[in-house]
Amino acid sequence: MAEARAQNGPAAAAAEEIWIKCPGCREIAFRKEIERNLNVCPKCGFHHRLTVEQRLAITVDRGSWREMFAEVAIGDPLGFVDTRPYPQRMEQARRASGRNDAVLAGLAKIEGHRAALALMDFQFMGGSMGVVVGEKIARLMDYALARRIPVIVFAASGGARMQEGALSLMQMAKVASAIARLREARVPYISILGDPTTGGVAASFASLGDLNLAEPGATIGFAGRRVIEQTTNQQLPDDFQTAEFLMAHGMLDAIVPRHKLRYTLGRLLTALRPPRLSPAISGRSRRAKT
Amino acid sequence: MEHQEEAAELSPAEIERRLETVARNLAAEKSAGARRKLAAERKHLEAALRARLSPIDRVRAARNPARPQTLDYIEALIGDFIELHGDRRYGDDGAIIAGMGWFRGGPAAIVGHQRGRSTVERLRRNFGKPFPEGYRKAARIFDLASRFNLPVITFIDTQGAEPGIGAEQRGQSEAIAASLEAMARIEAPVIACVIGEGGSGGALAIGVGNVVLMQENACYSVITPEGCAAILWREAGPEKVADAARALKLTAADLLALGVIDEVVPEPPGGAHREPAAAIAAVGAAIERHLRRLRKLAPAALRQARGRKFAAIGAPFLSGGVEKRARIK
Q1: Which of B177, B208, B221 is opposite residue A207, by nearest beta carbon?
Q2: In this complex, which of A172, A173, A180 lies closest to B185 when CB atoms are compared?
Q3: Which residues on A lie below 8 Å from B161 (Cβ)?
């Protein structure tokens, strides 16, 4: 479930090379040129992956980001050892990313609108969802619920994290429960399915947005392509498990090119207003009274 | 005493064979003294069998086709069962049974995976691997139960949700996710029972209970041991699969310790497949006990309690929770 391709993704390559061969049009392009273009190929529009920092920088209003729950971390609940002990894997991922786990959560403004934001880091063990990922996203949602702030989650994950076993599986239910509470309170939740979003993340919060959006060409699906090929012996369509495939089958509200994403989110946040808190618990009205 | 030492050396399969011999002899034996001796030997062998089962042995037991399946539980525990078909969107999935019936005299909604036994039934049930329409049928029943305050009893027994072109086209991810959310919203008691293999998201999709019960030899995991071994070691030979089963902590005892499940339901010696009626009765008794307690709670309180329960899973293993967890309503 997860991990494959994490280390050698285009984003990682982009950090080192001066020239990049675009997987979309096979043209060689100057890395800086692509980066200036939000990591989108200027020739063919291929959307290269973004790091979490790049994503944050192009999405939120400058200076508005405030990270939350940054210290939440997990040990080794299962004592999991495969070719290496889990704590060693984690230590390496933590050093490389400067993060405790595969998600960043916090508050920001987008085009002037307050939003609670979670961004998954595919470079951190394939964006795999363990307890920390589920916990931070659920906490962010409950924080936003109490204050009636819209929630936006950028998913990028291969699925649940094997090394935390059934504990990671249960995070699907944890976050789905938090979404049920948001839904009931009419606090909007926008899910943006990034490249890639598969497995247990696709099969839980990433698919439960009031709106589900994706960028062009993103890989989105439940089961891995290889698993499907092996178990079905069927020829898979070329666009299988792409954002375009999902939209054609009615599973996405819209595919939004990266250049339009920030503006689109701004418009959606203007339209989808959470109900106001009742005066009794609203901070503003309390201040007004004193 | 010699039995005891001997039994410790035997493989589970050998112990099982001996148990069968002892049972045959016991049935034929007339002398009270010899019967006592045989009964004592059986007890030793049963204890040895319990102790000798490794995680992968339990996975095999969980997958044993002779093990009671959802329809067997319904047959034994549920009166006047009315099966409800279809998702009203696309079709009727054979891998998920849904319906209403009477449990211990009260109406209840029932949802469970059905793997099937004969080749014909297995094919019809897609080997217990639901398509999206199965999860949409389940979610429809969860909503119905919530509106009419019917307790929900689910039986989990699947290798996982169907992976395939049709499943992807019809939105397997969305169907599982929506079922999770539907379960989180139920304003009625929900009791989930893992009665065989709990395979990943396809199992959890009907597993969001106020109480999660698990039979002694059932397993519940984020990925099959075979899949885990294939990813981690790029090979799925029997030895690596057994290693994966151990590493994943997928047994009932392990999951109880991790706080993933709430109670282990004991099985007859050697597994539920040896004495299905006794295995089913034990699960029925556990459901009844929890239901009696949950019935005293208000509908909204049941939904909140379920939310809190899942919010807490994994929390004991976290550090750095400086910010206070918002109160869940």
Answers
A1: B177
A2: A180
A3: 203, 222-223
A8 has a pLDDT exceeding 70: no
Interface of A with B in 81-140 (CB under 8 A): 81-83, 100, 130-132, 134-135, 138-139
User: Is the Cβ–Cβ distance between B159 and B197 less than 8 Å?
Assistant: yes
Q: Please indicate, yes or no, if residue A246 is contained in any of the structural domains.
A: yes
What domain range is B266 assigned to? Answer: 59-315
Are B201 and A240 inside 8 Å of each other by CB? no
Q: What is the pLDDT of residue A224?
A: 85
Q: What is the ipTM of this complex?
A: 0.91
Report if residue A157 sits inside a domain: yes
Read off the amino acid at residue A103. V
**CA B236, CA A70: separation in Å to the nearest integer?**
38
Answer yes or no: is pLDDT of A278 > 90: no
pLDDT, tens digit (0-9, with 9 covering 90-100), for B62-76: 999 999 999 999 999
CB contact under 8 A, A142 and B161: no
Query: Can you spell out the DSSP letters for A94-152?
Result: HHHHSSSSSEEEEEEEETTEEEEEEEE-TTTGGG-B-HHHHHHHHHHHHHHHHHT--EE
Q: Tell which phi-psi region holds residue B163, choosing left (phi > 0), alpha (psi between -120 and 50) or beta.
A: beta
Which of A74, A84, A133, A169 is most worth mutating to test chain B (most B CB atoms within 10 A of its CB)? A169
Best probe of the B interface among A82, A149, A153, A170, by most B CBs < 10 A, is: A170
CATH code: domain of residue A96:
3.90.226.10
In chain B, the number of structural domains is 2
The residue among B174, B239, B243 with the most chain A CBs within 10 A of its CB, best to mutate, is: B174
